Amino acid sequence: MGPDPAKGADCLVEARAVSLRFGGVAALTDVSFEVRPGELFSIIGPNGAGKTSMLNCISGRYKPTDGQILYQGRDITGLKPNARADLGIGRTFQNLALFNHMTVLDNIMVGRHHLLKNNFLTGMLYWIGGAQKEELEHRREVEDIIDFLEIQHVRYAMAGTLPYGLRKRVELARAVALRPDLVLLDEPMAGMNLEEKEDMARYIVDLNEEWGASIIMIEHDMGVVMDISQRVMVLDFGRKIAEGLPDEVKAHPQVKRAYLGEDDDEGGSEDSPGDPADDDAARVA
User: Fold this and answer.
1) How far is Cα 249 from Cα 231, in angstroms, rounded to an integer?
2) Of 131, 149, 178, at which residue does a domain stop?
3) Angle between the 131-148 and 194-209 helix axes, to the nearest 10 degrees?
4) 129: buried, middle or exposed (CB in 10 Å: 19+, 13-18, 0-12)?
5) In this structure, what CATH number is given to the domain that contains residue 67?
6) Residues 61 and 128 in one domain
């Protein structure tokens, strides 16, 4: 079934009955949801619930076994990650994926690489006519991002020498460098202290409200999720068990049992540790 044109204007991302299996292991089962333009949408759930797998299906790292991913009304299920970046989808990773031997400035510039107009056929003429002008424009954009995330003092530092909290900020800067319409954030506050979390939460809200980016965020800190999210979806064992406003989700009985651990002596806590990089395949349906 093709996309509904009337729905496209009100829906930025749509997952339609998405399932993902790794052999006999089900990471996702029949998950459907929508994210509206300009929305800050969070996905929560216990370790191994399928959160990162869902983000990987949206970014193109994984292709769903069944179902569809639509972006702005277009079926992108079969598109490669670079093609999705060209459409305006940026992301950060649960485990840092910076170039440690490069400066902060160069790491952020990598995020704008796909926007460069140069190619093999036009390279020589382009270099003579417009390369320097374009380079200045890209530098200007990057400096705006550096100012926004308050990392001016480390712009020339090697990324690998920075404290963990600053490296997380640099990775967000690189994701934002392509000026995406949609930013996928995979546990942006994992491993941070309270002050670093407060700063990151502020940057995410400003990115959403001032820069106009739609955001899909995975995060284990329930306080942050409930404070800054407009809507929340809960996964457990690869299935959606709740979706709605933060207060509605927080009061949902299944969420209390599966995520907050209420009425379950072995349940998770609000400050559960972060998932391993690909732990979504670790739970058998």
Assistant:
1) 9
2) 178
3) 130
4) exposed
5) 3.40.50.300
6) no
Question: What is the rounded CA–CA span in Å between residue 145 and residue 147?
Answer: 5
Residues 194 and 208 in one domain: yes
Q: How far apart are CA 193 and CA 226, in angstroms?
A: 18
Residue 135 has pLDDT above 80, yes or no: no
Q: Has residue 253 been placed in a domain?
A: yes
Half-sphere exposure of 157 (CA within 13 A, CB side): 13
Q: Which residue, 129, 90, 84, 125, is CA-closest to 110?
A: 90
Q: What is the mean pLDDT of residues 196-203?
A: 95
Please name the residue that has the structure tokens 């407009």: 230
Same structural domain, 165 and 29: no
Q: Three-state SS across 36-98? A: CCCCEEEEECCCCCCHHHHHHHHHCCCCCCEEEEEECCEECCCCCHHHHHHCCEEECCCCCCC
Residue 248 tokens read as: 């509605």
Render pLDDT for 142-153 as a digit per residue (tens, 0 to 9).
999 999 999 999
Domain interval for residue 241:
5-88+180-282
Note whether residue 96 is domain-resident: no
Count other Cβ atoms within 10 Å, centred on residue 273.
11
Q: Which of 168, 214, 167, 188 is nearest to 52 (CA)?
A: 188
Tokens of 188: 């942006």
- 248: three-class secondary structure by DSSP: helix
The answer to whether position 95 is within a domain reads: no
**pLDDT confidence of 241, banded at 50, 70, 90?**
very high
d(CA 12, CA 86): 15
* Claim to verify: residue 70 and residue 197 sit in the same structural domain: yes
Q: Report CA-CA distances (Å) from 251 to 183, 246, 260, 262, 269.
A: 28, 9, 10, 11, 15
